[in-house]
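User: I'll paste a sequence; please echo it back and then give the predicted structure.

Assistant: Echoing your sequence first, then the prediction.
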Amino acid sequence: MPTARILYLEDDIGVASPTKAVLEQKGYTVIHVEEGMDALTRLLTEHFDGAICDLTLPDVDGLKVIESIRSKNARLPIIILSARSDTEEKLEGLRSGGNDYLTKPFAIEELLTRLKNILMHRPLPTQEEVQAYGLLQVSDLIIDPVRQQVRRAGNYVELRSKEYELLHYMVLNPNRILTKEELLREIWNYPYDPSTRIVDNLVARLRKKMDQGYDIRLIYTRWGKGYYFKNPDADISKMSVPEPLQVAEVPEPIVKPEPKPEPTPQYGPLTIPPPSAYLKD
């Protein structure tokens, strides 16, 4: 499953190259830029899940870049990665809008841990962001269909491919009972098999990841019928079970018996001679 898209602002290639390589190895999509104005332009015109910013740049002070970003985007997680180690400089960086501050030289594992933490606790997007990026939002659940990312109450939820497909389908069909037959057809493209437990097992795994530890449940079971995704803001009192598909009865073909052919005589017609033939002269 794709992970977060990160903008990495660092003018020192000797630091940027190995750091970028490790981040990408961990699954992050990293866009590296060397100048502050380039970073600012991209952060204001493209979608990023987080940013790692140096402060000492060739064209502009990194603090100015962070302040400009914060004036337009108050929710973007930003880690400051700088050689400025004085306490007052750190405080200034945090006051400018950084969410975290890490001094150089740094341990890559520490950077990975800090990055993971700020991404997990990223604030929920605004309604404008939801519309601008085509996100799906139900209560505190956010789904990014382009990147196949899922967040619940601001926390990223790691889902396998089929788990994501099932969740996405359920969110698009809220407050409606989904039968096992329908889920097998839509998620696996399988014909219905009443003996299979593949749907039940997948729903159980998904429910554990999406509902465990949260006050509001999203995935429910209607025993003997199927499963449904509950939109907490909607009325499900009139929720109905889909009617089973009606299979048209095919009439038995009417077979007309073929006429039996007339028997073919094996001998010619019987000729009876007249009585005179038996008289002697």
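The domain at 159-229 is CATH 1.10.10.10 (Arc Repressor Mutant, subunit A). The two ends are 120 Å apart (CA to CA).
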